[in-house]
Amino acid sequence: MLRRIPSEALSHAGPEEQELRCKLLRGATIVFFSAGYPRKKFIYRKAAKMGVKAVIIDTPDSWAKSLVEEQVIAKFIPVDMGMDAESVFNSALAAIKELSADEATGPADGICTFLEQSLEMASRLAEATGLPGPKPEAVDIARNKHLTRKVMADAGLPSIANMLIENESQLEEAARKVGFPSVLKPVGGFASLGVQKVNNEAELLSVYREVVSVLRGLVVSEGSALRSSAAPDERTNGVDLDKVIDTTVMLEEYLDGDEVDIDIVMSNGEARYITVSDNGPTH
Ligand SMILES: Nc1ncnc2c1ncn2[C@@H]1O[C@H](COP(=O)(O)OP(=O)(O)O)[C@@H](O)[C@H]1O
Ligand SMILES: [Mg+2]
């Protein structure tokens, strides 16, 4: 249904267009790739209230499966997120295609996620099913902090000194190129995970080792969530950690002063919604 409406009619601001958007959502089937934390339940409640038939794809033991009985979502699709990314993608795609034959849902009208680490997968699923969504190449750039800086610099936008670090032998060069104080961070991180300030060259090696070990201490349920796990044996889950966890980090210039978040929702190359929030000074 959503596919048949011209995008201009969907994107204009204004009360009538807003009413149209709400009407269209009523009865629409929206797939959420991974459920997020239990605290995200309010989003599914809100979606249900708006008449959305929500479908959640997540690990078989996810808290969200009970939302079906609670009549908050229309369907829960269990997918083993411990598999490699390609298998997760193929299972999810097959299940999304099968929705067409499911009376409780009907075919998917949209695929989304609000988990940063699921963006790559969600964008690829949307592309494969012909549903709207950000291009996977754009998502890959946005999800890789080093690539983001490179694309910005290539576009002639202001950026800061930075260097990708794939192993210890590159630390000296990074110190020379970036200087101190600087910030070491995983290129694929989120929620400030593993982000550390480095005050001088003497600290660099120990901070580097610490950040890499934090990254290795996490089990990636590929395509979905990162989880800490207690026992080292359990941690590996039979998975080759080096294949699953990106331990690539980058060093970049430390910026002091106030930090401001600017969040923009883009559609067809235009900004549709912008918020600016003050985060206070960096630490
Ligand atoms: N170059 C930097 N200079 C100063 N502070 C930084 C810098 N990079 C990151 N930080 C601090 O660390 C936090 C997390 O870093 P960020 O790059 O936003 O990673 P994430 O994607 O995990 O949020 C930022 O909100 C900021 O406070
Ligand atoms: Mg951030």
UniProtKB/TrEMBL annotation:
The keyword S-adenosyl-L-methionine does not apply. InterPro entries: ATP-dep_AA_Ligase, ATP-grasp, BL00235/CARNS1_N. Gene3D superfamilies: 3.40.50.20, ATP-grasp fold, B domain. GO terms for molecular function: ATP binding; ligase activity; metal ion binding. Residues 149-203 form the ATP-grasp domain. Keywords: ATP-binding, Ligase, Nucleotide-binding. Pfam families: ATPgrasp_N. The keyword ATP-binding applies. It comes from the Eukaryota. This is CARNS1 protein. It comes from Symbiodinium necroappetens. The lineage of its organism: Eukaryota, Sar, Alveolata, Dinophyceae, Suessiales. The gene is CARNS1.
